[in-house]
Amino acid sequence: MTRHRALGFIVGGAAVAVIACWQSTSVTAQAPAGAPAYRAPRTAAGQPDLQGVWRAWNLAKYDLEDHGAKPGVPAGRGFVVDPPDGKIPYQPWALEKRKQLLTKIHEADPYKNSDPLAKCYLPGIPRLTYLGWPFQIIQTPQYVAFNYEWSHKKRYVPVTQVPPPPSPDDQTNWNGIPRGRFDGNTLVVNLTNFNAYTWFDMAGNFHSDALKVTERYIPIGPDTLRYEATMEDPKVFTRPWTIRMELQRQKDTPILDYECTAMFDELGIHHTWPRDFDVE
Amino acid sequence: MTVRVRVAVSFLLAVLVVTPALVAAQESVGSDSAAARALQREVAAVKAGGPVPRRADGKPDLTGNWNPTLGFLSHTVILEDHPGGFGIQAGKSLIIDPPDGIIPYLPAALAERNRRRDDANGYEDQVGHCEFYSMARIHQFTQEIMHSGNSVIINATQHITRVIPLDRKEHLPANIRLWLGDPIGRWEGDTLVVDSTNFNDRTRMALGGDFHGPDVHIVERFTMKDSNTIDWTIRFDDPKTYSRPWTMTSAKPMTRVRPVGNEIFDAEDTCHEGNVDLIHLKGVYDLAHGKDTPLLKK
What we know:
The complex is a heterodimer of chains A (about 280) and B (about 300).
Chain A: H1 2-12, H2 15-20, H3 22-29, E1 52-55, E2 80-82, H4 92-102, E3 135-139, E4 143-148, E5 154-158, E6 177-183, E7 186-192, E8 212-221, E9 224-232, E10 241-249, H5 260-266
Antiparallel strand pairs in A: 1-3, 1-10, 2-10, 3-4, 4-5, 6-7, 7-8, 8-9, 9-10
Chain B: H1 2-18, H2 20-32, H3 34-45, E1 64-67, E2 95-97, H4 107-117, E3 143-148, E4 151-156, E5 160-165, E6 182-188, E7 191-197, E8 217-226, E9 229-237, E10 246-249, E11 254-257, H5 263-266, H6 278-288, H7 294-297
Antiparallel strand pairs in B: 1-3, 1-11, 2-10, 3-4, 4-5, 6-7, 7-8, 8-9, 9-10, 9-11
Helix pairs in contact in B: 1-2, 2-3
């Protein structure tokens, strides 16, 4: 029982804050598409200046699709803007697999819980963006650095010409391998080389190691970024699909810290389970 | 298959960083490995430093990758004078004040340090859990320093990133406690001074159990000597743990090295994901403390 509460605390810690921002969330979800007229300030190197602390104040972490209330989860609108029906275009077998995965998202023991985040594993991209914790963008002429408050994780996105990623046969990452570029106002990040162990949200939405993601960070005002991510994975989906949401600038507080595994220790949960990722 | 390799690497790192006996293995690998030889070539290739590079505001430009050991990894366990052995290189104390090179613990704190130093309690070291290195442990790693707006950013391995504002005056409220503290930077002449408070009580400075309390006040000084060299000192003031403030430096001056290819773009900070060795550390701990252990059941 204690363990169950503990787990809820770890994976759903920001629930109260999210509920408190419920109203702004619906506005975010309904933000209209279209070319933004706003032109971001430029860095000394002439690139759009995206620097600062950003946060997704929305319900995407729970479920990317329209959903009713579930235990601990507020009902909410989805974030899938393509296909137009707002549903992730799963192949039939994959829809079945999602059902299976959902039977184990309430397991109190992190090892038995199907959600990789319950074990504090790297959440993957795009999930890390809207997990509920803020992140800071720092730019140099060569790369855009993302520093995440969640477990102090960081990634570097090159925006100049660098050699392509190694073959996925040689290297796969939890967060994929990024290659970026600026397209006018927009930072475009192409991600490949994913492993098959991350999810998109807490609702069992998953992918395979064939996943490719294209992220777009589009400044649409001094304190707002539009965030889009397009997922392609011919092993799991029938077609590419896209989510869209807005990220708000956090002005009052720098990024602090949230060391996920330390929360296990604090709650007396030993994270000594086997890590054999080759076995389903 | 790829995953298995990466998991194995993470596992190896966890073991090497945590277990003193295996750190010994790391040390002996340290001087011979391809990586160490590459680092030594990098360092040898660096020409004698030129004038200190400067930014538009006239202050030194610290941008670059800086290595504070030059492959001479000798202080992963003990920061004070220590003999070599079991593959660990002998090392002179990193403590430059007090002059005797000994951390001036209060008696109760020294007893606690010695309790932590006991291998039987190694499971308690947060780094074995893939949690945060302490500020003092950063002196083992290459650090990347960059300037951005009114901040200095310092990145090191294993998800250590510090964003140090130069324009903030006051630290965060005392009840916000952070693994790397709350750093605020300022210039004193050509020296970057980083003042940090608001720590938690969970980090250790080395495998040998050295520690500071949560109310420690840490001041680091980065002084650029020439375009390829930074002198770094770190001062600990914690009257609840030490009888007087004390100051440490890195094994070697921080020396400019070149970043390695695409590594920063293609690698990622995984550790916990492949930390299969934690169960063994816990087994050692449980055995030593008379508890049941899954290791005995196998």
